[in-house]
Every structure is written in C-alpha cells, then in structure tokens.
Design brief:
The complex is a heterotrimer of chains A (174), B (551) and C (107). With 551 residues, chain B is an alpha+beta fold. Chain B has helices at 6-27, 33-41, 65-78, 101-110, 143-153, 226-240, 251-258, 260-274, 283-292, 306-314, 316-325, 353-366, 389-398, 429-438, 442-448, 509-524, 531-538, 541-548, and strands at residues 45-47, 52-57, 62-64, 82-85, 90-93, 127-128, 168-171, 185-191, 197-203, 215-222, 326-328, 334-339, 350-352, 370-373, 379-385, 413-414, 453-456, 470-477, 480-487, 499-500. In chain B, strand 8 (185-191) and strand 9 form a beta hairpin. In chain B, helix 6 packs across helix 8 (260-274). In chain B, 58% of the residues are buried. Classes of the chains: A alpha/beta (174), B alpha+beta (551), C alpha+beta (107).
Chain lengths: 174, 551, 107
C-alpha cells in the first residue's frame, strides 16, 4: 500500500491501537468510534493525537460527540460505492470545522480521487499498482459546479467573482 | 435555451477524455469488467442483449435543432439509423461499439450534450414538463431551476455514490405533465399569497416493484432555498437509505420506514445547519441561467386563423391532429405541437435518423429552433405560429410523423422490453403494436377520449405501468411471456396506483382484454366522463366481470 | 464444479469490443450463430466449457459469460429460453437487424 497525498498535508504517523491496549504517553493512536465514545479524558490526555477509525455505518450524531477531540480521522470504505464515506468527511469539515487529516482507506478507485479531495479528504491509502492512476485522475477536471474542501470555489462563483478569468485561471485563482 | 460557456465545455470535454482513457484501459485489460462496469454505467453505457446501449441525457427534455441533427448523425454513423426516446427524456442507442463510444461522446460534447449520470446510483437527468416555457397554464418556466439542479448535481462530491439511483422532476404548471409524484423528489412551482415563486416539495415517490406516490413535505419553499433544501434531503437519504438490499434502497423505502413526518423533521434539522451557508450559487448566476430561458420573441396574434379553420373543416385528419396534438400556448396566436412517435403498428419512441433531421429542419422553420422530448416518448415543437400549422402538418404527415393520437389510447408508453433489454422478462413493443393496430381508427379513438396505456416488460416499471389508466406488466411464467392487466393508475396531479385486475394473459389475450375494458367504459360512461373518472366511479368489478366472466 | 444442470447447456457471452452476442463452439472459438454452439450434457462437460469461456473473459475477448439451457430438439441448437433465443436472433420487432438477417449481417 502507498499513501496518496491529495492536499499536501503532513500525513500523520499513528499506531492502530489493539482493543485491549492503552496508548503510550504522547503516542498517536487510531481507535474505533465505538471505543472512543466510551473513553474518558485521561485516554485523550495520555495519547499524543487520537484518530477515529470511522466506518461508513457511523451515525452522524456519534461524530458530534467526539469530533472536537480528534487529531485525525480515518474513514474506511467497505466498497467504493458506499457514498456515506464522502458525507462523513463533508460532515467533519462542514459541521464540525474539523481541520485535521482525513484519510480514506478501503477499495476506493482512482476515478474517485477528485471526489475524495473535494469531500475533504487529505490522504488516501491505495495499492501500489493504482498509485499512478490515482495521481493521473487528480488533474483530470479543471473545475466543478460545487465549492469544495480542496480549496476550489464553484464554477458558479468563478463565473462572477473574477471577471473574464476563464477555465485555466479558475483553478489557480481558487 | 441554456448555452455552455468555457467552463461547461471544459467539464464535458474532460469527461470524454476520462472515459476514453477508461475504455482504453479496459480494452488493454488494465481494468477488469468488474472495475469497468461502474465507470461505463456512469457514462450511460449498458450491456444489453444484442450489444451495448448508450443512454444520452436530454436535460429537462430541451433540444436545439442542431442538437437533434447531431443525434441523427450519431444514429447514422455509429448506430443502425435510429434512436429510442425514453420515459426519462433521454435517447438510447441500441448498437454502439464500446471502442466508438468515446467518439460518440465527443461528438455530443461538441453540441453541448452528454451521457453523464444517465445511469448509476446518482442524481439522474432532471425531468420536467415538455411544454415548459410554452404552456398557457404555467406558473413559471421550470427549466432554469432544472438547469441549476443539473449543475449542482453533476459530479456532486457527496451525492455521486448514493444507495440507489435518484430522480428529480419539476413542473411549473398545476396540470402535472412530468409525473412529479412518481419521483424520488418532485417539485411543483407555485405562487404564495404575496405572489412570490416557490416550490411545493414532495418526496419518496417511485415505481419499480414497490410503487409509492410521493408525499408532500413542504408546502412552500422559496426559490433561493432550493439547492440547500435539496442538499439536506439528499444528505439524510445518503446517510440512512438502505445499502444492504438494492430493492429496498430507494428513498421511498426509507420514507415509508421512518414516516414522512420524521424524514421532514430530520431534513429540516439538517437544513437549519446548512441553509445559511450558501450552496454555491450566487444571485448573479441564477440571473445568468434564467436569461437563457427568456421567452422567445413571438408576436402576439389572433388565435383564430381562417386558413386553419378552413382546412380543419375540409380535412378530418388535420382537424383531429389540431385537436389532439396542438395545445394552448402562453402567447396568443401560437401553439405547442406534439409530434407523435406512436404510429399505429410502430415502435413507441423510436425515430429514424431521417425523421430526426426532418424534425430539426421543421424546428428551425417553425419553432424558433427548439424541440422538446416528453416523458410520454413524443417530440414537441414548442413555439409554432398557428398560421403555420397546415404547412407543418403536411410535412409531418408526409414523413409518417403526423399521427393525430397525442393523449389518446394509441399514444402508448412502452419500455424496450425483451426485444433489447437484459433485465426484461417479456417483450413490450409487440403488445403496443398489436393494440395500436387493433384500435387503428381515429374516430373510434377520439370517441374513447383521453386514455393512457403504459406497458412494462418487467417489474422495474420503465414503461410506467403503475401510472397507466390501463397498465400492462409482462411477467415470465415458466418461460412464457404473460401479461398482467392493471387499471386506474395516473401519473398526473391526481396520481394513483393502478391495481391488478386478475390473472394474466398471453400476447393475444391481453389485447382482447384491453378491448373489453374499453367496451365497458363506453357502455358505462356518463356524459363527458373520461376513462379514468369512470373507472374511479365504477370500481374494478364491472371490468373484471367483462374480462374474466362471472364464474 | 458447475451448478447442477437439468438438461443440455450452451455458453452465451457478449464480445467485449462491440457487445454482440456470441456462442462458444466446440473448438473454443466464439460464433455469431447459436447453431454452432458446443453443448454440455452434464456438469463435467459444462465445467470444461466454462473453463474455456472464462479464459476468454480473462483475455478480454468477451464479457457476461452465461451458461443457458439449450434446445436440441430441432434441426439446429438454440437457446431454450425466449430471452436467450432473442440474443441468437435479434429484436423481434426489427426483422432487418440482428443475426436473423444473417450471421454476418453487419459486414
């Protein structure tokens, strides 16, 4: 597996914490949402950065209870067609103002690279074989009709905010 | 009509380049069929019985003459000289080669058309009233809002991988010609007490194996709130729609399970969070899009035109065509004209390349270069001066496009069925052909009056049988084609679900049964009562007795 | 092992490039004509045919490989079910299109 960096963020190094293990002092750990919901402040204080392993079945209301304690988030796609993963990332960014790294794991496909970026993901774990296709897909579209979390304003805005900008200038200006 | 700017062009061109690369990778074996299938579906490319099938979007059913010429060209150059207009305002080609589809899509992109989101679990082509911008009974033209939705929903970062496909329809008139109550979301443009324009919002309609009529969830949504409200509606569905069973994944199942009140509550709660964050469209952009749909410069003139009346008095067929296929336009002295793609004995919705070219020429000559496609699988010239009707009719009639049956019994909706479709259980087209041949008598058809027959070759209901005044559903009975008869459905503002009358028939029996049902209606109707109203008054028993006998 | 079969089977697929329906022959090639089909009379024979067919799938020659019941009662082998018989002939409403015109109707 390799990590594709969509946004240029500094990717988080972390340990996947075993179910019965406790974090070491200052250690970055990733833990399931279910477990995080039951952890107290000493857990969060001990660990360096705490990340949530978020399955696509996670209720938005559960995120509400932990979002402000998270340093990073790992959203697991069980299948590339499970679009809840995109909504979960959007929710973290839009509703909770989450600024940390959001990583995608699971069988996402290269043709989703821009969807991931635009929904607010920073990084995505892919098989080495797919690295090149992912990177190629990232530069495929010059613009989209929606404003996004990759820092690009929508075409609808670009048409009116910068006079005569044109397609080429759109991406740079955003 | 909406015209692409450099942004729109760049988007569809990028999409074609992307698909060309995907097809190339597939042909070389770098993508497996399992990986490629969702990618081709997202570009409207299916694999059917005999070949691939390409479904091209005709956004909200509006076409220019030049676009129609391109559709004709694609039919001629890449297909077998015809196309099939569908119940979702798309056109389908039945014989494209995989290796040539990128070229087809590039040709379409050149005239501002695409196949984006005509399949897959995403927001599909937004459909609307075929008479939008022309109908006399319209509150407002729904097409600017449909275009806003088209742009908002195209490659939406959050809603491109939904639990299941998602269909939105808008009507701008109280008389619903877009079947909005049979859609995942239906929007009905209306005016409130202060004269402000907004939408009634309906949700949870759909056909398929579980037919459900959409329920109203908001009586009046102001226009500026449209996209943020849709975003909230989609968000709740995307999160909570079932993903474990594709037959239970549509929003209608979610809303039935949680109740429309609870769904509305959750949507409103979502909306409160996002409604003050602008969803992407500045006012200037709305104004820009609206300007494209400004009414064409039609000169008001008298509604009574002597030469039209004279020809109508002299020629019964023209009179019938005038009566059935020409409708009231918002500008006096004009009409919108339905070109029937339902010749008796023909294939509903099919048009040859030559017919498409002719319609394009006639649109240029008589209809401001504009054409519409209806969900009832006909073509429309929306802006025809009444004085031109005799000349237009003569040219249509000569080309086999003058069938005077719009809205009548032989104006049948039929899915492609087992003649083409890999999902079908039975053929649909031959049933439509048999019925139209059996009723090939214009005087008889006009005596029967408005009667909508809709035929589906399987439970997926692409032929809208649930909404037929008479619906026909093909089922596989131990390897034989069997046809169930349903009565009492409606796709209009008085939407209702058709009910199965009794045991099914073979392909001859179903036509006999339709004839018996019509005979009961003719015998029992009161005054000007339509078939649907008579059925609603009489109930199924009298029809059942006529069709199946008493014992 | 292939699934249990109750009668003779033939193998139907679509060519990857143009999507046209094709039938697996005894020599392992794909034909436009259903009558050229190799017929499996039992599970073991079906296994053998499916191995050949799936290799063609993996080689990106065909997609949608499907074993279907064969009607061997007439002069020519044909798919038994109407749906697959349709694939062998072409659309019933367009006698001018499909293999019903000729196996090489597009050339």
């Amino acid at each position: 597996m390799v990590l594709i960096n969509l946004t240029g963020i500094q990717p988080t190094g972390y340990t996947l914490l075993a179910d019965d293990a406790q974090p070491k002092e200052g250690e970055n750990v990733a833990v399931s949402v279910e477990r995080l919901l039951g952890e107290n402040s000493s857990f969060f204080n001990t660990a360096g950065g705490v990340g949530a392993i978020i399955t696509t079945g996670t209720a938005f209301s559960d995120l509400d209870r932990i979002a402000d304690k998270l340093a990073f988030a790992v959203i697991e796609f069980p299948a590339f067609g499970d679009g809840r993963g995109f909504s979960l990332a959007v929710r973290l960014r839009k509703d909770f103002g989450f600024k940390g790294e959001i990583r995608a794991t699971g069988p996402v496909i290269p043709d989703q690279a821009l969807f991931l970026l635009r929904a607010g993901f920073d990084t995505v774990e892919v098989t080495t074989k797919r690295k090149q296709a992912f990177e190629a897909a990232l530069s495929r579209f010059p613009g989209f009709y929606q404003s996004d979390f990759g820092g690009q304003t929508s075409i609808a805005h670009a048409r009116h905010t910068v006079e005569g900008l044109g397609v080429e200038g759109h991406r740079k200006a955003s | 009509m909406y015209a692409y700017d450099t942004y729109d062009h760049a988007m569809v061109n990028a999409r074609v380049a992307e698909f060309r690369d995907q097809v190339d990778r597939r042909m070389k074996g770098e993508l497996t069929e399992e990986e490629f299938r969702p990618l081709r579906l997202m570009n409207g490319l299916y694999l059917q019985l005999h070949a691939y099938m390409l479904r091209v979007a005709i956004p909200y059913g509006t076409l220019s003459a030049d676009q129609m010429r391109k559709l004709a060209h694609v039919a001629r150059r890449y297909d077998k000289g015809y196309g099939h207009f569908t119940t979702r305002q798309n056109i389908q080609y039945n014989w494209p080669k995989l290796s040539e589809t990128p070229d087809i899509l590039q040709e379409l992109a050149d005239v501002e058309m695409h196949a984006i989101q005509t399949s897959g679990n995403c927001i599909r082509n937004v459909t609307t009233d075929q008479f939008a911008g022309a109908a006399a009974d319209e509150v407002a033209d729904p097409r600017p809002y449909a275009e806003l939705i088209r742009q908002w929903s195209t490659f939406h970062p959050e809603f491109s991988f939904l639990p299941r496909k998602f269909k939105i329809a808008i009507t701008g008139a109280a008389q619903d010609r877009a079947a909005v109550k049979w859609h995942d979301i239906g929007l009905v443009l209306k005016k409130n007490e202060t004269g402000e324009i907004g939408f009634e919002v309906l949700a949870g309609g759909g056909m398929g194996r579980t037919p459900v009529i959409a329920k109203s969830m908001r009586d009046f949504l102001p226009v500026p709130d449209m996209l943020s409200y849709l975003e909230a509606m989609l968000r709740v569905y995307n999160e909570q729609g079932r993903r474990d069973n594709k037959y239970k994944a549509r929003i209608k199942i979610l809303i039935d399970a949680m109740g429309i009140e609870e769904y509305t509550r959750q949507v409103n709660a979502e909306w409160e969070k996002i409604r003050h964050v602008p969803i992407d469209v500045p006012e200037k952009e709305v104004a820009r899009i609206k300007a494209f749909f400004a009414p064409p410069p039609l000169a008001v003139s008298a509604d009574d035109v002597a030469e039209v009346t004279e020809l109508a008095n002299a020629n019964f067929i023209f009179k019938a065509w005038l009566n059935n296929n020409a409708g009231a336009h918002k500008v006096p002295g004009h009409a919108h004209v339905t070109i029937s793609l339902k010749p008796h004995g023909g294939i509903p919705g099919d048009a040859s390349d030559a017919q498409m070219d002719l319609v394009a020429d006639l649109a240029d000559a008589y209809s401001q270069g504009e054409i519409r496609v209806s969900h009832e699988q006909n073509l429309i010239l929306p802006h025809v001066a009444k004085k031109d009707l005799p000349a237009l009719w003569a040219k249509l009639d000569e080309a086999g496009l003058g069938t005077a049956n719009a809205g009548l019994l032989t104006d049948i909706i039929a899915c492609p069925g087992l003649d083409y479709c890999a999902l079908a259980n039975t053929r649909s087209i031959p049933i439509a052909q048999s019925i139209t041949e059996r009723f090939d008598d214009l005087k008889r058809l006009m005596d029967i009056g408005p009667l909508k027959i809709k035929i589906s070759g399987c439970i997926n209901s692409c032929g809208h049988h649930h909404a037929g005044h008479i619906g026909i559903l093909g089922v596989d009975r131990r390897g034989d084609e069997n046809y169930q008869l349903l009565l009492g459905g409606s796709g209009a503002e008085d939407a209702s679900k058709a009910a199965i009358l009794g045991p099914g028939f073979n392909e001859v029996g179903i036509v006999d049964a339709v004839e018996k049902v019509v005979a009961v209606y003719l015998g029992e109707r009161e005054d000007e009562e339509s078939f649907l109203n008579a059925y609603r008054r009489l109930g199924p028993d009298v029809f059942k007795e006529a069709v199946y006998g008493t014992d | 092992m292939a699934k249990k079969i109750t009668g003779p089977q033939l193998i139907l697929a679509n060519r990857l490039d143009d999507g046209r329906a094709v039938f697996l022959t005894a020599s392992g090639t794909w034909s436009n004509t259903a009558a050229d089909s190799a017929v499996a009379e039992n599970e073991a024979e079906l296994d053998t045919l499916m191995t050949v067919a799936q290799a063609a799938d993996l080689a990106n020659l065909v997609v949608s490989v499907t074993p279907v019941a064969a009607d061997t009662s007439g002069d020519a082998i044909a798919p038994a079910h109407i749906k697959f018989a349709m694939q062998a002939r072409g659309p019933s409403v367009r006698a001018d299109l499909g293999y019903q015109v000729s196996p090489n109707w597009e050339q």
